[in-house]
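Incident log, structure service

09:12 report received: a user says their structure output differs between two submissions of the same chain.
09:20 pulled the input from the user's history:
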Amino acid sequence: MQSRRSMMAGSLALAGTAACTTMTQAPASAGLIYAPAPPATPLHGLNMQLLEVLHRSGMAGWSMEPVALPESVNRSTVLPAQERRTTLPIVTTADFALARKGAGPDWHGYDRASTDLLFVSKLYDVGFGFQVTDPAIAGPGDLAGKSIAVPPRPSAVRMMSEALVEHGWAVDGVEFVDCSPPQGAQLLAEGKVAALAWNLVLPRDGVPAPMLPSPPGARFLSIEPSAIARMNAAVGFELGPFVMTDGTPIISFAQALAAWADTPEADVLAMLAAIADKGGEFDGLPDDVAGMFDWPGLTNEVIHPVAARFRSGKA
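09:34 re-ran on a clean worker, output below:
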């Protein structure tokens, strides 16, 4: 799954951060990272690139297990303190704020507020939107009374789909059709649904591309910033914009590594250094330090102190 783009990782970090990267030795530690995508999916392949970078950087004691959100965070909160501090979730722009607040719908909710869950580094961006093929569907209002192929609950993509229809666009009469990604792509190609929410846009050789084959004439409906703002206000997301290569605006469903306030600082620093040093070689990691912190709503309150120092070159 590795995608080598430019092999320029060593020159991408800021000068101060690069210095701390070369000075930092990976601790002889062990831990577990919960990755939210199902195995055997392109998303999980991107997540596994983080683990490869950690292992290549001397953190061979870390492993990765596919556990969906919100289960990964809910499971972590009931672990013994010593185990939880080295059990880290990959989070998304749809879930990070909800997890910290203990919020979310009944079928995709967090059992308790986790204000000690803190941002470490963005991993990669994902585009989310509704793909259509019918030329008569020119805008959101044309979906009224029609069907959309979506993941079953409790998927975060399903949560965003419902929020977009109900709050972002306020479209009535939409039927959600539960399906797998291949089923959804087939339903759209056969004209049995009006739109597909499954076709996430992922980085591929440095260029964003839909993860599923697109039928002839397929395109994404534009999602304006005002619709994203209404979704965020109604549900508590921190979604941002994502622009397709053709200029179509959709939603950024970015993924990030999070850690706990009591996660050993040496582990957090070693992970940051590994991502900054080798991230430019992989589609599933940022090209540079600035990209590691390209995240909507990122404030001092939600960023891990080690990450904040790393960002400023003072780690």
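09:41 both user submissions now match this output. Likely a transient worker issue. Closing.
09:42 reviewer note: The first helix runs from residue 9 to 12. Residues 9-125+256-311 form a domain with the D-Maltodextrin-Binding Protein; domain 2 fold (CATH 3.40.190.10).
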